[in-house]
Structures are given as structure tokens and as C-alpha cells.
Write the C-alpha cells for this entry.
Amino acid sequence: MSVTMLQGNCLDILPTLDTGSVNCCVTSPPYYGLRDYGVDGQIGLEQTPDGFVAEMVKVFREVWRVLRDDGTLWLNLGDSYQGSWGGYKQKDRSNVKNAKAFEGKDWRPPTSNKNQSLKSKDLIGIPWRVAFALQQDGWYLRQDIIWSKPNPMPESVRDRCTKAHEYIFLMSKSPKYYYDQDSIKEPTICDKVWKFIDSSDKQRGHSRRHAGFNGRYAEKLAVDGPPESKNKRSVWTVATQPYSAAHFATFPEKLIEPCILAGCPKGGVVLDPFGGSGTVGVVATKNQRKAVLIELNPDYIEFQKQRTSNIQINMF
């Protein structure tokens, strides 16, 4: 399988791709106001949330064009708070990926609140703002998936809980679309439950195989046995996965593997317009799919090349 890496602004690169040339898009855009990557033209440092949402609509309008009619979009977005901006200070740029890019420049994070009703410390609601804007633009908003993090970033806040989840939105161009539910089914615990019920009944000298345990479903279990798998649930518990070479948290491979397996057939093409360190390319290649990665920062292209070389392909 091949990984195509394209360096540049996705709003410039996407129009050069063929219409209907990819099966699905799996991506995580830069979060609003949380990090500066030291590259001109980057998305995420708009002056207002509305400005950020407008840029997202532009990007995914082009993604819509390059997707097949039965294609899907799997969009991961985190939220941010008004006035926090990732802890940046105008003269403290230690969090900036490429601090040299700002030497001699009067750079500051976005702090404008023009035309906004947001107050300091308000949760902005960026994921849902973007999701509703894309829905308004024509996308079908099919599902919100909760990414539950068992190892969230520690927070020193004392007036709310530590944030331990993000959203993945499943969107489609059409009401009917490619979705391989069997490829991501989860193991069921029904077999253990049934054995416990059956064992308890035998100890009492009777059986409820045909009389209880939800009527007809019990009869089906008696004939066919318990199912080995169940439809995947909408809460995905996946630990965050740091990538030391890039000094920032990347897409965990286990998080996006279900998106690629369910959204793209073997031999198909997965698009990531915000390629980052190349995790989509890695997972797509492992699972016998092709990938197209677009990345603004040329340094990250080198990360992608390193990570997508010599990958062990999953044959089953």
C-alpha cells in the first residue's frame, strides 16, 4: 500500500485532488487557540471561534468534493476555554513548536472576542459548533463518538473536573454510505452471562431457556448459542499516545483504526488533510489501505516518512 505525502496548506492542495478519488477522510484539525506550530497560514489561531468554524467549513467543503458519494468523514476535535489559549503568554513562547519563527515579531495568541457572547472561562463548544456548521453545509451528522482517555492530561483546575474526553464525529455525504460494521464489532460478554444464568437454574432444578431471559431471544440463544460479538459502542476508551520526536500528542493508532476499517475497504484510499506526524498513513498501510496526507509544516513530512517506512502489514 502507498502513502502519498503532500506539503502545503490543505486549502491549496485539496483543489488539486481528483473529484471522488478517496473513500473516507479521517482527520484531527489543529485545535482552536491551543497550539502554534510556527508556520504561516496555519488554521487554529483565528481571532474568533466563528472565524475558526468558517475555515473548517471551507476545508471540508473541498473534502466533500474529493470524497466518493458513499464516503464518510471521521472528524476528531477537542474543545478549549475562552481566555486560556493553551497557557501562552506574549513573551513566553516555550510552547510554540518553532519558537524561532517568532523572533523579532510582535506575536500574540488570539484574544479577540469580537461579535462573541463568550465570557472568560466559558467552554467554547468548538466541536459542536463545527459539527453543526458542517451539517448546515450539507453533511449528514450521523454520530458523535466519545473518545474516553484513561490517561488524560493533568489539570490544576479546582472548579471543574479534569477533561478526559474528546469527540469524533461520523459524517457522510449521503444517507446511505460505506460502513463495514462487522470489521469493528466488539466481543460480547453474553456467553458468560448465559453460563451464569444456566448454572444458577440447574442448581435450583429447573431451566428458563425457553421461558425467560427475554422470550424469543432466549429461544434463539438455546438454538444458536450466544453471539460472539456485538455492534461497536459509541464510547471508545483509548489511551493517548505520545510521539517523542514531535514533542506533542498524536492520534493514537487504536483510536483511528476503527474509523479506517469501517470507513474504507481494503485497497481504498484514506485522506487526512491535517497529516501531522502521519498516524493515518501508518494505520492505513498496516490495514492494506492507501493514504493521502496533506501537511503544512515541512518538518512533519519528515516525521511521516520515518513512521510510514518498514510497516508490518496486517494480513487478516
Notes: The first strand starts at residue 3 and ends at 7. The mean pLDDT is 81.
